[in-house]
């Protein structure tokens, strides 16, 4: 999928990102992107894992 992306293309994307976001906001944007990707991955794993796991019944103990 990304086999046609070379170092020049990556450099161009990084330069545009610095120009648009600025050097101070770029680390925050990277962290936000990483968090959202992590949550998406865990959500997808949770959805596929839900069908394999038996449902837990909630019991109330007094």
Polypeptide structure, described:
By secondary structure, the chain is an all-alpha fold. It has a domain at 7-45. The protein is built from 2 helices and no strands. The protein has helices at 7-21, 26-50. The longest helix is centred in the middle third of the chain and has 25 residues, at 26-50. The radius of gyration is 20 Å and the shape is elongated. The model has no long low-confidence stretch (mean pLDDT 81).
Q: Looking at the structure, what is the overall shape?
A: elongated
Helix amount = 55-70%
Averaged pLDDT: 81
Strand content: under 5%
Query: Radius of gyration from the CA trace?
Result: 20 Å
Structural class by SSE content: mainly alpha
How many distinct beta strands? 0
- Note the total helix count: 2
- Main beta sheet: strand number and arrangement? none
* Ends distance: 56 Å
Main features:
62 residues; mainly alpha; 2 helices; 65% helix; elongated
Brief summary:
By secondary structure, this protein is an all-alpha fold. The chain is built from 2 helices and no strands.
